[in-house]
């Protein structure tokens, strides 16, 4: 297992399976995420505008390279339906080398992006 990687996992949530899939497709198509896992519904408990809410949400695990995190985060916020979307970036401290290489390869900017 690799000790140092440039891979990152970005987490977000959304309020529907359809929106989760839409976001995933947009980000993979733009080469900002190599892949996205969608799980849900999950139950989220949070305080918003002074009240505690309990809502069903769908969680997205986006795999990307550190070089693409800023672009992915900006696009995610632009495309998201929430006023204040969750965008958490987690370092990947190890993993299967060929998979990590694939993540980097899949998130290289496309010719049209450059």
UniProtKB/TrEMBL annotation:
Q: What is this protein called?
A: Divalent-cation tolerance protein CutA
Q: Which family does it belong to?
A: Belongs to the CutA family.
Q: Which InterPro entries match?
A: Ion_tolerance_CutA, N-reg_PII-like_a/b, N-reg_PII/ATP_PRibTrfase_C
